[in-house]
């Protein structure tokens, strides 16, 4: 958890020692002490790595993407077929199966990582050619000058953009449009709060809409890959959730923060570039989205389609070497860490051993579903959404295969999707998400504003998500 | 964690203290170092560099005995150890020629005129340290609430993927 108010220096060391000490103690314990039938030495090590990852991602003694890399490196050193000599099998019968180092390293180039790279390229090109601001300007014209409609307009635009751009970038852009407008509101007008709250809420929720909307979706896709969930299929349930939640959020904001102002004008200069490169950006943007949506026509899956904008933009110089450096590689590597953790749980058989040791079968599938979604929502309020997904989704994926009654709620797939969507509904604190932090830093909103609306959205979101999953289950959607 | 320094270079002690007083707002997050000459500033910068810390910003007066502020900033500008360091000239007595040199050879980022307004100085420093923090890739989150210029931050974050 990062701090927004203190420049802390000493606490980092306490956190770091704690996050190293606990896993080390667990590692030094003889394998036979652990109450798990058939736990191999390799599985014991994976268990240690899981605790280490959890503590590092929760306490953040080092950046969260660095934790991912640490995790992957430790997997290579401790449990791969190319491990450090001390950690290789020296004739121990209970050693267990080591993992292929190629497979661990391959997580850096998983199809979902390349899908996100495609999304990043679209976003980079769009901002470079000011497509984002121009589209925002065009859309804004349709929402008139009544504060409540302008608020709805800003929230809709934010949500749509955050489906394709990062939630942080969208929030930064929309806040920079909004802040100069706020001075037209009287200082005591509650609408100021509504407007500044509306942006991060819409950005957080918008990420639900598409597979590339927010990194937790990537991790979900990875664990769903058996069912090969397509872009359009995700949008078929993601978009309705966004629309419902956005409407609820808008109503909540109008209920809590009624505006006294009669008229408000938000406008942006619209100035589309018409040079060939800019036109190519527009065409590629539309083409990629169409290809993503109509995969059942042309047969290329979302991952393959993602290579189209990457290739077009690189070969035409629309994205050059310098732009390439601006890509958020940290986000991609953060996701790789989650994938590598899931891989280790699965391939070493630790998932199965865990399931045998803990009586998951006795759990009611409905309560398991609700519990997973709630834990996701809860954790993501205090830590990074992606780190939450990195920890929870591999666990859910493995538990899901063991609990027999899960078909009732649609199997582990729906629990994974449900938890992922719930994670994006976590926004009750300034530190919950980067968009929240940016809005909070404007000084226009208080923690209690975020808490009031954020907690309500979280809880309503949980109900909406579970409702949506129930409908998908009834339709046999992910089968 | 590395320390981030703001250097004030000014030969008149009372002016130096006045600037420092106006910037006391930044003291909790940054180290504000008062230097009475370019030579003193250089020595301090060597130490900061050796310790692996950052010089985010230099605010220098122009007219000083020994080395002028602009000559000092020209030296800093050609020193690639301080390539991202922001340079502000704070002066009331620069000629037209001085100003040309300050822009062309020292590549100053901002020009403040004496007497300065406390609020303007504060906003300028915010803007400069925000640019420095983003240029260096330092985690901006701990500084977000108090010390950053939002327009600069938002413009940069809009381009993140």
Write up what this structure looks like.
Helix content of chain A is 68%, strand content 0%. Chain A is globular. By secondary structure, chain A is mostly helical. The longest helix of chain A has 28 residues, at 447-474. Chain A is built from 23 helices and no strands. Chain A has helices at 10-28, 41-59, 64-79, 101-106, 111-128, 131-140, 147-164, 167-182, 191-206, 215-224, 231-256, 276-293, 295-298, 302-305, 307-315, 321-325, 329-347, 350-357, 365-382, 385-402, 411-424, 434-441, 447-474. Chain A has 2 domains: 1-109 and 337-350, no CATH class; 111-326, no CATH class. Chain B is an alpha/beta fold and 161 residues long. Chain B has a single domain, classed as Response regulator (Rossmann fold), CATH 3.40.50.2300. Chain B contains 6 helices and 5 strands. The mean pLDDT of chain B is 95. The A-B interface holds A 2-9, 12, 63, 119-120, 123-124, 127-128, 132, 165-166, 168-169, 171-173, 175-176, 179, 326-328, 331, 437-438, 440-442 and B 1, 28-29, 139, 141-146, 148, 150-151, 153-161.
Whole-angstrom Rg of chain A = 23 Å
- Tally of separate helices of chain B: 6
- End-to-end Cα distance of chain B, whole Å, is 26 Å
Could you report the average pLDDT of chain B, rounded to the nearest whole number?
95
Main location (chain A): membrane
Transmembrane segments (chain A): 12-29, 41-59, 65-87, 108-129, 149-182, 194-214, 234-257, 278-294, 300-320, 327-345, 365-384, 391-408, 414-432, 453-475
Keywords (chain A): Membrane, Transmembrane, Transmembrane helix
InterPro entries (chain A): SLC13A/DASS
């Amino acid at each position: 958890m990062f701090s927004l108010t203190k420049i802390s220096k000493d606490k980092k060391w306490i956190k770091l020692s704690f996050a190293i000490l606990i896993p080390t103690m667990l590692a030094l314990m003889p394998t036979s002490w652990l109450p798990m039938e058939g736990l191999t030495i390799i599985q014991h090590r994976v268990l240690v790595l899981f605790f280490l990852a959890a503590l590092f991602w929760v306490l953040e003694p080092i950046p969260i993407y660095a934790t991912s890399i640490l995790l992957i490196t430790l997997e290579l050193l401790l449990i791969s077929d190319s491990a450090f000599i001390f950690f290789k099998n020296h004739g121990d019968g209970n050693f267990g199966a080591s993992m292929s180092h190629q497979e661990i390293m391959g997580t850096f180039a998983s199809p979902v990582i390349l899908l996100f790279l495609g999304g990043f390229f679209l976003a980079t090109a769009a901002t470079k050619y000011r497509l984002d601001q121009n589209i925002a300007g065009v859309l804004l014209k349709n929402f008139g000058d009544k504060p409540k409609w302008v608020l709805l307009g800003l929230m809709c635009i934010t949500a749509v953009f955050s489906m394709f751009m990062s939630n942080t970038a969208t929030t930064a852009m929309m806040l920079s449009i909004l802040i100069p407008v706020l001075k037209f509101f009287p200082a005591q007008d509650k609408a100021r709060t509504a407007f500044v709250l509306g942006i991060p809420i819409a950005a957080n929720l918008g990420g639900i809409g598409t597979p590339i909307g927010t990194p937790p979706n990537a991790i979900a896709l990875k664990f769903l890959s058996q069912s090969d969930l397509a872009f359009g299929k995700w949008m078929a349930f993601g978009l309705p959730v966004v629309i419902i939640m956005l409407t609820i959020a808008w109503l909540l904001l109008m209920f809590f923060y009624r505006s006294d102002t009669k008229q408000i004008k938000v406008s942006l200069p619209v100035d589309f570039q018409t040079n060939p490169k800019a036109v190519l950006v527009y065409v590629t943007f539309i083409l990629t989205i169409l290809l993503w949506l109509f995969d059942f026509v042309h047969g290329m899956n979302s991952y393959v389609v993602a290579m189209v904008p990457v290739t077009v933009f690189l070969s035409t110089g629309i994205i050059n070497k310098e732009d390439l450096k601006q890509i958020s590689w940290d986000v991609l590597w953060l996701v790789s860490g989650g994938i590598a953790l899931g891989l280790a749980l699965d391939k070493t058989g630790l998932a199965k051993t865990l399931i045998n040791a803990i009586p998951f079968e006795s759990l009611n599938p409905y309560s398991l579903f609700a519990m997973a979604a709630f834990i996701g929502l809860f954790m993501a309020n205090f830590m990074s959404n992606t780190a939450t997904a990195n920890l929870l989704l591999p666990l859910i994926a493995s538990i899901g295969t063991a609990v027999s009654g899960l078909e009732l709620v649609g199997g582990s797939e729906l629990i994974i999707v449900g938890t992922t969507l719930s994670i994006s509904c976590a926004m009750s604190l300034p530190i919950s998400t980067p968009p929240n932090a940016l809005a909070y830093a404007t000084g226009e909103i208080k923690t209690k504003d975020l808490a009031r609306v954020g907690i309500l959205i979280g809880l309503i979101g949980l109900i909406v998500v579970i409702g949506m999953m129930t409908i998908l289950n009834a339709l046999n959607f992910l089968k | 964690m590395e320390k981030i320094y703001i250097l004030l270079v000014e030969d008149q002690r009372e002016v130096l203290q006045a600037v420092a007083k106006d910037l006391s707002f930044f003291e909790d997050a940054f180290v504000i170092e008062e230097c009475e000459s370019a030579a003193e500033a250089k020595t301090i910068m060597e130490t900061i560099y050796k310790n692996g810390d950052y010089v985010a910003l230099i605010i220098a007066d122009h007219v000083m005995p020994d080395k002028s502020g602009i000559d000092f900033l020209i030296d800093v500008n050609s020193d690639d150890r301080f390539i991202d360091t922001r340079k502000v000239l704070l002066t009331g007595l620069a000629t037209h020629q001085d100003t040309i040199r300050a822009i062309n050879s020292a590549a100053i980022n901002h020009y403040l005129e004496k007497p300065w307004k406390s609020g303007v100085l504060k906003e300028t420093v915010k803007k400069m340290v925000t640019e420095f923090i983003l240029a260096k890739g330092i985690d901006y989150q701990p500084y977000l609430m108090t010390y950053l210029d939002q327009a600069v931050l938002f413009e940069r974050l809009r381009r993140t993927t």
